[in-house]
Design a protein that fits this description.
mainly alpha; about 325 residues; 3 strands; 11 helices
């Protein structure tokens, strides 16, 4: 077993999703197609929002563009490494690479949680106070809210890295997952990790739970407000809220399950890990485009512009 300075391991061994070579090849094909869908889907939303002046001026789509950017970056933290590991028997990651994964995973993950909370506030203002919506959700406030999301994610991720980097690692170096994360890594430390795991719950578990509860309460208030609105407005608002609640459930339920449960691990943890690092970034573009008339209209305009541009290029 290799060791670096200060009794720290120089690398960790990732057990991955399977030890079967045939199954690994099959999983490589599946996740490669999923990764293509993530990249193409989120890039499509980013380009569509940037290309359409109406969408770009709307706070909702301004936030959606940032959400797609986060999902695109979040998938790049774990999926490329996972795909490469499917094609080789020895799955290792350096100690510094492990810390980098933890940092970017929590930086982007926490930023996304805060952004979803901001998007819930945006929908609350739009539905409960529609006459003053554009006045309240002005461009400056939207920019400040997005900056606050990124800053909150940075503070959260730095705290997670500090929890790990001070731990001594001198024993086993096998992580029962396909990427590095705090719950698995701290269990390998050569010390009593009770305090560290409590801090992890306070930093990650409670953060996920509090954001989730705030989101549920905000959408409950929105749904109660919709009872007094006219039917056409109800249908459009309900469709938007349903999309947001689907995304919220896909992200927060796995995170609460993983980070709010200390001192033990289950085999199903890998399934939840796949969900919020791979499946959710793929589903977000589908949820926000298939159920959204404005996005579909903007994509049709973008496609027509592309066809006209190609026609003039050929001419």
């Amino acid at each position: 077993m290799q060791k670096g300075n200060n009794s720290k391991l120089s690398e960790f061994v990732l057990l991955g999703l399977s030890s079967s070579w045939e199954l690994q090849l099959f999983l490589f094909l599946i996740f490669f197609m999923v990764y293509l869908a993530i990249v193409l889907g989120n890039l499509l939303i980013l380009v569509t929002v940037r290309a359409d002046a109406h969408l770009l001026q709307s706070p909702m789509y301004y936030f959606l563009g940032h959400l797609s950017f986060i999902d695109l970056c979040l998938s790049c933290v774990t999926v490329p490494k996972m795909l490469a590991d499917f094609l080789r028997q020895g799955k290792t990651i350096s100690f510094s690479g492990c810390l980098a994964q933890i940092y970017f995973l929590h930086f982007l993950g926490a930023s996304e949680m805060f952004l979803l909370t901001v998007m819930a506030y945006d929908r609350y203002v739009a539905i409960c106070n529609p006459l003053h919506y554009l006045t309240i959700m002005n461009r400056q406030l939207c920019f400040q809210l997005v900056c606050a999301c990124w800053c909150g994610g940075f503070i959260h991720s730095i705290t997670q890295v500090i929890l790990v980097i001070q731990l001594p690692f001198c024993g086993p170096n096998e992580l029962d997952n396909f990427y590095c994360d705090v719950p698995q890594v701290i269990k390998l430390a050569c010390m009593n990790t009770y305090v560290v795991e409590v801090l992890m719950i306070s930093n990650s578990g409670l953060l996920s739970l509090i954001c989730f509860l705030v989101l549920i309460i905000s959408y409950a208030v929105i749904l109660m407000t919709l009872k007094t609105r006219f039917r056409q407005g109800q249908i459009k608002a309900l469709s938007t809220c349903a999309s947001h609640l689907t995304v919220v459930s896909l992200i927060f339920v796995p995170c609460v399950f993983i980070y709010l449960r200390p001192f033990c691990s289950f085999s199903v943890d890998k399934v939840f890990s796949v969900f919020y690092t791979v499946i959710t970034p793929m589903l977000n573009p589908l949820i926000y485009t298939l159920r959204n008339a404005d996005m579909k209209t903007a994509m049709q305009k973008l496609r027509k512009k592309h066809v006209i541009f190609c026609y003039h290029m050929e001419a």
